What we know:
eight-stranded mixed β-sheet
Amino acid sequence: MVDLTGRRVVVGVSGGIAAYKAAELVSRLRSRGADVWVVTTKNAAEFVGAATFRALTGHPVASEMFNENIEWEMQHLSLSDFAEVVIIAPATANVIGKIAAGLGDDLLTTAVLAAECPVIIAPAMNFKMWDNPIVQGNVEKLLGLGYVIVGPEEGRLAEGTFGKGRLAGLDALVGAIETALIPAAGEGESPLAGKRVVITAGPTREAIDPVRYISNRSSGKQGYALAEGARDRGATVTLISGPSALPVPEGVRLAPVLTTADMAEAVRALAEEMDVFIAAAAPADYAPVARAEHKIKKAAETLTLELRRTEDVLAWVGSNVPACIKVGFAAETVDLAAGALGKLHEKHLDLIAANDVSRSDAGFEVDENEVVIYRADGSAREVARASKRAVAAAILDEVEGIIEAR
């Protein structure tokens, strides 16, 4: 857990019904010792009055571009200079669209455009608006520019309908703020500092013939996000990656592999020197018994392939490297808890992150994920849909907790 004492957070509030939840977020941040300033849009003031935020923060609420009652020469620049992180919660479709277009027509949007610190956007709106291709395009643009998107969640909405559009929960919002503050917290403060972390990522490929192979939809994004997060906490990171189009994270040692056997060999070679092992890869469970020497021609009406089980890399680490902290992933399509808990105990893991890979908006090939992290004692932590970097931060927080407890 990141110490928020004295950390400088700007909370932007735009005009949605979820604006009342911003007061809960501010209260949580203040209880953790953060120095919080609130910036509201004109419409947000229709939902929550300035007196509420002023009482919670001890600061006047900033809402106008030029306000003589706040002794800052240029508020939008002063706010951006003050902030270590900016979070907009809730963020309406209107505010998201303006930021994506580079428009600054009020104090909040100009402060965001001037900000050089991490900016977190927590959307909240009607599910039909969220599903609109224009809104989705704006969100994708912001993700590509480095903004952090947290949520929205699926559930009952203000107008009584059910769908995706609820503001992300407090834990997810605070977790995203903690993640954004980690690089600025200083190397050596994290329990992971100096630890040797080995992470597997991406798919593996098992050849059928010279041009065909068995694989899966894993992009490697979650594993690469974990590598970046562990690096930012001061760990020495080795990333064992199957084929991926992602760039190698700066400061991370890459060990490229192709097959599951290659991945197992690379992991064994590092077994004696790793303090933490995180198996975020999706290695093929089966491989052809024999690889055809030449391309198989399309001649017969049917083709039968004989497959054999590949080595279970994570199970090997669980049985042979007892001293290191072991983290697995359970990619499930049904009965998430049962599948994850079974793997957790069978493979002697400390943690396992379970996610539903049948979803199109989280998991494989996308920039966001939603997981439940199960601990060895059977307790669990739910991580609402968020960027894979934010999910990585939640997992690494759990790893740090184990290090501190040992």
